[in-house]
Amino acid sequence: MYKNTGFFIAGTDTEVGKTLVSGALILKLREQGKKVLGFKPVVAGTYQSDEGQLLNEDLETLRLALGLTAGQPSLCPYVLDMPAAPHLVAESKGIRLELNTVIQAYSEIQQQGDCIVVEGAGGFLTPLNNQENLGDFANQIQLPIILVVGMKLGCINHALLSMEAFKTRNLKVAGWIANTLSSEMQLLAENIETLRSKIDAPFLGSIPQLPPAIKKPDNRPYCIEALAFAAQHIRLPSL
Ligand SMILES: Nc1ncnc2c1ncn2[C@@H]1O[C@H](COP(=O)(O)OP(=O)(O)OP(=O)(O)O)[C@@H](O)[C@H]1O
Ligand SMILES: C[C@H](N)[C@H](N)CCCCCC(=O)O
Ligand SMILES: [Mg+2]
Fold first, then answer.
1. Which of 9, 12, 13, 14 to mutate to test the pocket of ligand 2 (most atoms within 8 A of CB)?
2. CATH assignment of 6-232, among 3.50.50.60, 3.40.50.300, 3.30.450.40, 3.20.20.140
3. In this predicted structure, what is the pLDDT of residue 238?
């Protein structure tokens, strides 16, 4: 039913660098001459562009990496305004997020390219509604997973719980990435070593802190230089 070519970028939590990694992987796939597409099942949080458009920072980062301008094509079926748990934001507007709608939007987009990079939202099991979550979506589309571990205290447990959730669903894990966050954790190298010894999937690299000149502005997309910086530090698994 699906081409099954691409990656699902999962995170140990929200705000761990999934967007940075998604953008970086898109650049690497484009370098190989692939026609790449991007997708996000739901976004929560918008900003107003200078032209007055309501945009989302993750979708605009994906668009920048893909070489697309703002707006078309739509890379996400649900754009919610409040930066909070999507099912709750939707509920507060009288909307129910539906897995079927997400799958339909995904299937239209993924047919348009050679491969697709799907960024999850929050951690792996973020709810869509009271019955369905993003793990169900990942299970249906069956893309190999890349786990982004946000390097902060507690990430070992979060990484291992995420790995268990992938295993339970028989999902292939193409690899994992250690992403240093805006404040560098204590014993960073030792934490990465512990993760390497415990995660049963290829280690694809570690992204250092972004240099100050290219760090992400609050509530705005990453710049292309930040995505290129991250891309230099990670390896692309074969498709
Ligand atoms: N390597 C890094 N160096 C410095 N700051 C970073 C790095 N990676 C991520 N950050 C910061 O961490 C924050 C979260 O990153 P990002 O938006 O990529 O996370 P996410 O996992 O995509 O979050 P969400 O669940 O909202 O999609 C951003 O403000 C970003 O600037
Ligand atoms: C709005 C935020 N940046 C993310 N896109 C969504 C985070 C959902 C978290 C849900 C939860 O696990 O509590
Ligand atoms: Mg993101």
1. 14
2. 3.40.50.300
3. 86
- Residues in binding site for Mg(2+): 19, 58, 119
Q: What is the DSSP letter of 208?
A: -
Q: Is the dihedral of CA 112, 116, 122, 124 positive or negative?
A: positive
* pLDDT per position as a tens digit, 184-231: 999 999 999 999 999 999 999 999 999 999 999 999 999 999 999 999
**What is the SS3 string spanning 39-78?**
ECCCEECCEECCCCCEECHHHHHHHHHHCCCCCCCCCCCC
Contact between residue 73 and residue 109 where contact means Cβ atoms under 8 Å apart: yes
Beta bridge partners of 203: 176
| pLDDT confidence of residue 72 | 66
Peptide bond into 73 cis (omega under 30): yes
Prediction pTM value:
0.98
Retrieve residue 13's tokens.
């939590």
Residues in the chain where the model's pLDDT stays below 50: none
Which of ligand 2's atoms lies nearest the C-alpha of 125? Answer: 12
Domain borders along the chain are 6-232
pLDDT of residue 83: 98
